[in-house]
Amino acid sequence: MKYNFWGWEQADIPAITEQYKGIHTPRDLYDALSKIWCADTCAPRMRQNWTPENKTLGQCSITAFLAQDIFGGKVYGVPRPGGNFHCYNVVGDCRFDLTSEQFGDEALVYEGNPEQFREVHFAKEEKRLRYEYLKKELEKLNG
């Protein structure tokens, strides 16, 4: 099966937790989140453009930190206009971006980017609440 997220070909690292039944690799997580991502989990500044066809829009940081919970590793951020960062995961030699398809054909650079920290991102209460909602919905689906 082919996926639309960047790094899917090597996204076969194992989960470091058994908290979510059926989530063994990042591809499994993508499949599960594809049923959960919604306008409510989208960043408020992008929400008016969210559609089921562009389900990963505005989902990057909460998704990357949830993936970090499940697979370990670090979260990095591609600098974006306006001082924002697009978050993705690095676990050992494996790099993947579960929400990259929101950029269409735009090629992002996944090297030399700064590490991102949940303490900084979750200082925004709305972002922490969206992360907790995403996590809760994943637990309902695969707990």
Describe the structure.
The protein is an alpha+beta fold and 143 residues long. The protein is 29% helix and 13% strand. A four-stranded antiparallel β-sheet has the order 3-2-1-4. Helix 2 (60-71) crosses helix 4. The chain is globular and about 35 Å long. The protein starts with 25 loop residues before the first helix and ends with a helix. The model has no long low-confidence stretch (mean pLDDT 96).
Compose a concise summary of this entry.
With 143 residues, the protein is an alpha+beta fold. The chain is 29% helix and 13% strand.
Order of helices and strands: HHEEEEHH
Mean pLDDT: 96
Shape: globular
Helices, by number, come to 4
Question: For the CA atoms, what is the radius of gyration?
Answer: 14 Å
Characterize the largest beta sheet: strand count, sense, and whether it forms a barrel. Answer: 4 strands, antiparallel
Give the strand line-up of the largest sheet. Answer: 3-2-1-4
- Estimated helix fraction: 25-40%
Strand content: 5-15%
